[in-house]
Design goal:
The protein is an alpha/beta fold. The protein has eight helices and ten strands. Bound molecules: NADP nicotinamide-adenine-dinucleotide phosphate.
Length: about 250
Protein backbone atom coordinates (compact mmCIF):
# COMPACT_ATOMS: atom_id res chain seq x y z
CA UNK A 1 0.00 0.00 0.00
CA UNK A 2 1.57 3.34 -1.01
CA UNK A 3 0.96 7.05 -0.73
CA UNK A 4 -2.70 7.84 -0.15
CA UNK A 5 -4.17 4.40 -0.82
CA UNK A 6 -6.63 3.85 2.03
CA UNK A 7 -8.21 0.52 3.07
CA UNK A 8 -10.67 -0.38 5.81
CA UNK A 9 -9.56 -2.89 8.45
CA UNK A 10 -12.42 -2.36 10.92
CA UNK A 11 -15.20 -3.28 10.78
CA UNK A 12 -14.44 -6.28 8.57
CA UNK A 13 -14.50 -7.08 5.71
CA UNK A 14 -11.62 -4.98 4.52
CA UNK A 15 -11.46 -3.70 1.00
CA UNK A 16 -8.38 -2.68 -0.88
CA UNK A 17 -8.11 0.90 -2.01
CA UNK A 18 -11.28 2.78 -1.12
CA UNK A 19 -12.38 5.58 -3.45
CA UNK A 20 -13.21 9.06 -2.17
CA UNK A 21 -16.96 8.37 -2.30
CA UNK A 22 -16.52 5.17 -0.29
CA UNK A 23 -14.47 7.01 2.32
CA UNK A 24 -16.99 9.87 2.43
CA UNK A 25 -19.79 7.38 3.01
CA UNK A 26 -17.91 5.80 5.93
CA UNK A 27 -17.53 9.23 7.53
CA UNK A 28 -21.22 10.07 6.91
CA UNK A 29 -22.53 6.98 8.66
CA UNK A 30 -24.57 7.86 11.76
CA UNK A 31 -24.33 11.64 11.39
CA UNK A 32 -27.94 12.23 10.39
CA UNK A 33 -29.08 13.80 13.68
CA UNK A 34 -28.05 17.46 13.59
CA UNK A 35 -26.23 19.30 15.02
CA UNK A 36 -23.31 16.89 14.71
CA UNK A 37 -19.93 18.08 15.97
CA UNK A 38 -16.94 16.35 14.39
CA UNK A 39 -13.35 17.15 15.27
CA UNK A 40 -10.33 16.11 13.20
CA UNK A 41 -6.73 15.87 14.44
CA UNK A 42 -3.43 14.26 13.59
CA UNK A 43 -1.14 13.05 16.36
CA UNK A 44 2.20 11.26 16.56
CA UNK A 45 2.17 7.81 18.22
CA UNK A 46 3.53 9.40 21.40
CA UNK A 47 0.78 12.02 21.46
CA UNK A 48 2.34 15.13 19.93
CA UNK A 49 -0.14 17.38 18.12
CA UNK A 50 2.58 19.42 16.47
CA UNK A 51 6.02 19.14 14.98
CA UNK A 52 7.98 22.37 15.17
CA UNK A 53 4.79 24.19 16.10
CA UNK A 54 2.66 22.97 13.20
CA UNK A 55 0.58 19.92 12.32
CA UNK A 56 1.96 19.64 8.77
CA UNK A 57 5.04 17.63 9.78
CA UNK A 58 2.79 14.92 11.25
CA UNK A 59 0.52 14.70 8.22
CA UNK A 60 0.88 12.58 5.10
CA UNK A 61 -1.00 12.07 1.84
CA UNK A 62 -3.65 9.82 3.45
CA UNK A 63 -4.28 12.29 6.27
CA UNK A 64 -4.56 15.13 3.76
CA UNK A 65 -6.98 13.04 1.68
CA UNK A 66 -9.31 12.45 4.63
CA UNK A 67 -8.88 16.08 5.76
CA UNK A 68 -10.18 17.21 2.34
CA UNK A 69 -13.02 14.66 2.31
CA UNK A 70 -14.21 15.87 5.73
CA UNK A 71 -14.44 19.41 4.35
CA UNK A 72 -16.65 17.96 1.61
CA UNK A 73 -19.19 16.77 4.16
CA UNK A 74 -19.78 19.78 6.41
CA UNK A 75 -21.77 23.01 6.52
CA UNK A 76 -19.16 24.87 8.53
CA UNK A 77 -15.46 24.52 9.35
CA UNK A 78 -14.87 25.68 12.92
CA UNK A 79 -11.34 26.65 14.00
CA UNK A 80 -9.80 28.30 17.06
CA UNK A 81 -7.98 31.55 16.37
CA UNK A 82 -4.70 30.11 17.70
CA UNK A 83 -4.75 27.51 14.93
CA UNK A 84 -5.88 30.03 12.33
CA UNK A 85 -2.85 32.19 13.16
CA UNK A 86 -0.32 29.35 13.60
CA UNK A 87 -1.30 27.41 10.50
CA UNK A 88 -1.79 30.50 8.32
CA UNK A 89 -5.34 29.75 7.23
CA UNK A 90 -6.66 31.54 4.15
CA UNK A 91 -10.18 31.76 2.73
CA UNK A 92 -12.24 28.59 3.26
CA UNK A 93 -12.37 27.22 -0.29
CA UNK A 94 -12.49 23.55 -1.30
CA UNK A 95 -11.07 22.16 -4.55
CA UNK A 96 -13.17 21.72 -7.70
CA UNK A 97 -13.94 18.02 -7.13
CA UNK A 98 -15.04 18.70 -3.56
CA UNK A 99 -17.12 21.65 -4.72
CA UNK A 100 -18.94 19.43 -7.23
CA UNK A 101 -19.50 16.73 -4.58
CA UNK A 102 -20.83 19.31 -2.11
CA UNK A 103 -23.27 20.81 -4.61
CA UNK A 104 -24.45 17.33 -5.66
CA UNK A 105 -25.12 16.60 -1.97
CA UNK A 106 -27.18 19.80 -1.62
CA UNK A 107 -24.53 21.74 0.30
CA UNK A 108 -23.13 25.18 -0.50
CA UNK A 109 -20.13 25.06 -2.88
CA UNK A 110 -17.80 25.90 0.00
CA UNK A 111 -18.25 25.51 3.76
CA UNK A 112 -18.68 28.56 5.97
CA UNK A 113 -15.53 29.40 7.94
CA UNK A 114 -16.24 30.02 11.65
CA UNK A 115 -13.42 31.27 13.87
CA UNK A 116 -13.42 31.32 17.67
CA UNK A 117 -11.51 34.15 19.36
CA UNK A 118 -11.63 36.06 22.63
CA UNK A 119 -8.90 38.56 21.69
CA UNK A 120 -10.18 39.18 18.13
CA UNK A 121 -6.58 39.31 16.97
CA UNK A 122 -7.78 38.71 13.41
CA UNK A 123 -7.11 40.97 10.43
CA UNK A 124 -10.29 42.02 8.57
CA UNK A 125 -8.09 42.75 5.52
CA UNK A 126 -6.79 39.17 5.35
CA UNK A 127 -7.82 36.76 2.55
CA UNK A 128 -9.78 34.78 5.17
CA UNK A 129 -12.36 37.55 5.02
CA UNK A 130 -11.62 39.38 1.77
CA UNK A 131 -11.65 36.29 -0.43
CA UNK A 132 -14.26 34.26 1.46
CA UNK A 133 -16.73 32.51 -0.87
CA UNK A 134 -19.19 32.33 2.05
CA UNK A 135 -19.45 35.07 4.66
CA UNK A 136 -17.38 33.90 7.68
CA UNK A 137 -18.59 33.87 11.27
CA UNK A 138 -16.49 35.05 14.22
CA UNK A 139 -17.51 33.76 17.66
CA UNK A 140 -16.29 35.98 20.48
CA UNK A 141 -17.08 37.23 23.97
CA UNK A 142 -18.79 40.28 25.44
CA UNK A 143 -15.42 41.34 26.90
CA UNK A 144 -13.86 41.68 23.44
CA UNK A 145 -13.15 45.21 22.22
CA UNK A 146 -16.26 46.81 20.66
CA UNK A 147 -14.21 48.70 18.04
CA UNK A 148 -12.52 45.46 16.90
CA UNK A 149 -15.88 43.73 16.78
CA UNK A 150 -17.22 46.55 14.61
CA UNK A 151 -14.28 46.30 12.21
CA UNK A 152 -14.75 42.54 11.85
CA UNK A 153 -18.51 42.94 11.45
CA UNK A 154 -17.78 44.64 8.11
CA UNK A 155 -16.46 41.36 6.73
CA UNK A 156 -18.02 38.64 8.91
CA UNK A 157 -20.99 37.87 11.11
CA UNK A 158 -19.81 38.44 14.68
CA UNK A 159 -21.58 36.42 17.36
CA UNK A 160 -21.12 37.00 21.09
CA UNK A 161 -21.35 33.75 23.05
CA UNK A 162 -20.18 34.19 26.60
CA UNK A 163 -18.40 36.76 28.78
CA UNK A 164 -14.72 35.85 28.82
CA UNK A 165 -14.71 32.57 26.85
CA UNK A 166 -16.89 31.46 23.98
CA UNK A 167 -19.32 28.91 25.38
CA UNK A 168 -19.32 25.89 23.13
CA UNK A 169 -22.95 25.00 23.80
CA UNK A 170 -24.20 28.45 22.81
CA UNK A 171 -21.98 28.43 19.73
CA UNK A 172 -23.27 25.06 18.52
CA UNK A 173 -26.85 26.23 19.08
CA UNK A 174 -26.27 29.34 16.96
CA UNK A 175 -24.70 27.31 14.16
CA UNK A 176 -27.61 24.87 14.20
CA UNK A 177 -30.13 27.74 14.11
CA UNK A 178 -28.32 29.11 11.07
CA UNK A 179 -28.77 25.76 9.31
CA UNK A 180 -25.09 24.90 9.79
CA UNK A 181 -25.61 21.70 11.75
CA UNK A 182 -22.79 19.66 10.16
CA UNK A 183 -20.04 21.19 12.23
CA UNK A 184 -16.48 20.20 11.38
CA UNK A 185 -13.81 21.43 13.79
CA UNK A 186 -10.17 21.39 12.67
CA UNK A 187 -8.86 22.29 16.14
CA UNK A 188 -6.92 23.38 17.84
CA UNK A 189 -6.29 21.82 21.23
CA UNK A 190 -7.86 24.58 23.38
CA UNK A 191 -11.04 24.66 21.33
CA UNK A 192 -11.18 20.86 21.32
CA UNK A 193 -10.81 20.85 25.12
CA UNK A 194 -13.75 23.22 25.40
CA UNK A 195 -15.89 21.11 23.06
CA UNK A 196 -15.17 17.99 25.12
CA UNK A 197 -15.84 19.75 28.44
CA UNK A 198 -19.12 21.21 27.17
CA UNK A 199 -20.43 17.81 26.09
CA UNK A 200 -20.93 19.07 22.53
CA UNK A 201 -18.50 16.66 20.88
CA UNK A 202 -20.01 13.84 18.80
CA UNK A 203 -17.03 12.49 16.89
CA UNK A 204 -13.26 12.49 16.79
CA UNK A 205 -11.39 11.64 13.60
CA UNK A 206 -7.82 10.95 14.59
CA UNK A 207 -4.92 10.23 12.30
CA UNK A 208 -2.14 8.39 14.13
CA UNK A 209 1.05 9.39 12.38
CA UNK A 210 3.74 6.69 12.53
CA UNK A 211 6.42 8.67 14.31
CA UNK A 212 7.70 9.48 17.76
CA UNK A 213 8.26 13.15 18.53
CA UNK A 214 9.24 13.33 22.23
CA UNK A 215 9.74 17.02 23.13
CA UNK A 216 7.13 19.30 24.65
CA UNK A 217 4.47 19.48 21.94
CA UNK A 218 0.86 19.90 23.06
CA UNK A 219 -1.47 16.94 22.87
CA UNK A 220 -4.66 17.25 20.85
CA UNK A 221 -6.84 18.58 23.68
CA UNK A 222 -5.83 20.90 26.45
CA UNK A 223 -6.86 23.77 28.62
CA UNK A 224 -10.31 22.96 29.87
CA UNK A 225 -11.05 22.04 33.47
CA UNK A 226 -10.85 18.31 34.25
CA UNK A 227 -14.09 16.50 33.54
CA UNK A 228 -15.38 12.98 33.88
CA UNK A 229 -13.90 10.93 31.01
CA UNK A 230 -16.09 10.86 27.90
CA UNK A 231 -16.54 7.33 26.56
CA UNK A 232 -16.06 6.91 22.83
CA UNK A 233 -16.88 4.01 20.49
CA UNK A 234 -14.66 2.99 17.57
CA UNK A 235 -16.66 3.49 14.36
CA UNK A 236 -13.98 2.49 11.88
CA UNK A 237 -10.27 2.06 11.35
CA UNK A 238 -8.69 2.86 8.03
CA UNK A 239 -5.07 2.17 7.23
CA UNK A 240 -2.65 3.65 4.74
CA UNK A 241 0.83 2.22 4.98
CA UNK A 242 1.74 2.65 8.68
CA UNK A 243 -0.76 5.49 9.21
CA UNK A 244 -4.01 4.77 11.06
CA UNK A 245 -7.13 6.82 10.40
CA UNK A 246 -9.44 6.29 13.35
CA UNK A 247 -13.03 7.39 13.71
CA UNK A 248 -14.53 7.46 17.19
CA UNK A 249 -18.08 8.54 18.02
CA UNK A 250 -19.54 9.31 21.42
CA UNK A 251 -20.54 6.10 23.15
N1 LIG B 1 -2.37 18.08 15.15
C1 LIG B 1 -3.41 18.69 14.66
O1 LIG B 1 -4.23 18.06 13.98
C2 LIG B 1 -3.65 20.14 14.97
C3 LIG B 1 -4.87 20.73 14.66
C4 LIG B 1 -5.08 22.06 14.95
C5 LIG B 1 -4.06 22.80 15.54
N2 LIG B 1 -2.88 22.22 15.81
C6 LIG B 1 -1.79 23.01 16.43
O2 LIG B 1 -2.23 23.50 17.65
C7 LIG B 1 -1.51 24.71 17.93
C8 LIG B 1 -2.47 25.75 18.43
O3 LIG B 1 -2.95 25.33 19.67
P1 LIG B 1 -4.08 26.15 20.43
O4 LIG B 1 -4.54 25.33 21.58
O5 LIG B 1 -3.60 27.53 20.66
O6 LIG B 1 -5.21 26.18 19.31
P2 LIG B 1 -6.66 26.80 19.30
O7 LIG B 1 -7.57 26.11 20.24
O8 LIG B 1 -7.04 26.86 17.87
O9 LIG B 1 -6.39 28.29 19.73
C9 LIG B 1 -6.57 28.82 20.98
C10 LIG B 1 -7.10 30.21 20.74
O10 LIG B 1 -8.32 30.10 20.03
C11 LIG B 1 -9.29 30.91 20.63
N3 LIG B 1 -10.20 30.07 21.38
C12 LIG B 1 -10.26 28.72 21.39
N4 LIG B 1 -11.28 28.31 22.13
C13 LIG B 1 -11.87 29.43 22.63
C14 LIG B 1 -13.00 29.69 23.46
N5 LIG B 1 -13.75 28.69 23.96
N6 LIG B 1 -13.32 30.97 23.75
C15 LIG B 1 -12.60 31.98 23.25
N7 LIG B 1 -11.53 31.83 22.44
C16 LIG B 1 -11.18 30.55 22.14
C17 LIG B 1 -8.51 31.88 21.50
O11 LIG B 1 -8.07 32.86 20.58
P3 LIG B 1 -7.61 34.34 20.94
O12 LIG B 1 -6.19 34.19 21.40
O13 LIG B 1 -7.72 35.07 19.65
O14 LIG B 1 -8.50 34.84 22.01
C18 LIG B 1 -7.38 31.00 21.99
O15 LIG B 1 -6.26 31.74 22.42
C19 LIG B 1 -0.80 25.11 16.67
O16 LIG B 1 0.56 24.83 16.83
C20 LIG B 1 -1.42 24.20 15.63
O17 LIG B 1 -0.48 23.89 14.63
C21 LIG B 1 -2.65 20.90 15.57
Amino acid sequence: MTDATIARIFPLPSEEGLGDDGIASLYSDGTEGLPWVRVNFVSSIDGAATQQGLSAGLSDAADRRVFAILRRLCDVVLVGAGTVRAEGYSAMRVDDASERARVAAGLTPHPVFAIVSASLDLDPASPIFQQAPERPIVFTTSLSRPDTREALAEVADVEICGRDRVEAGAMVKILAERGLGRIHCEGGPHLFGDLIASGELDELCLTVSPRLEAGVASRISTGASPIAPVGMRLAHTLVSGSTLLLRYVKA
